Amino acid sequence: MLSTVLSVLVLATFALVGGAIWLWNRPGMRRQAMLMLVLAGIAVVNVAIWTLPDSEGRSPIGQVADR
Q1: 11-28: per-residue pLDDT in tens?
Q2: Number of separate domains in the chain
Q3: Is the N or the C terminus of the chain less surrounded, counting Cβ atoms within 10 Å?
Q4: pTM of the entire structure?
Q5: Cβ 60 vs Cβ 3: under 8 Å
Q6: What burial letters (b/e) apply to 22-48, b meaning 16+ CB within 10 Å?
Q7: What is the 3-state secondary structure (H, E, C) of the chain?
Q8: Is 32 within the bounds of a domain?
């Protein structure tokens, strides 16, 4: 279940970046585009927190899957 959520989060990140690029060229929409990029960055950090292993080689998503 958590893998599905992380996959959807990655897809949403791509959509946010694409939408921010599209909005950047529209007059008066640069603030919204920047906020979309910030949200995409936050999503990437969240996925990294869940998937990257620590110094002992254990990742949080692996520990959840072991239970």
Answers
A1: 999 999 999 999 999 999
A2: 1
A3: C
A4: 0.82
A5: no
A6: ebeeeeeeeeebeebbeebeebeeebe
A7: CHHHHHHHHHHHHHHHHHHHHHHHCCCCCHHHHHHHHHHHHHHHHHHHHHHCCCCCCCCHHHHHHHC
A8: yes
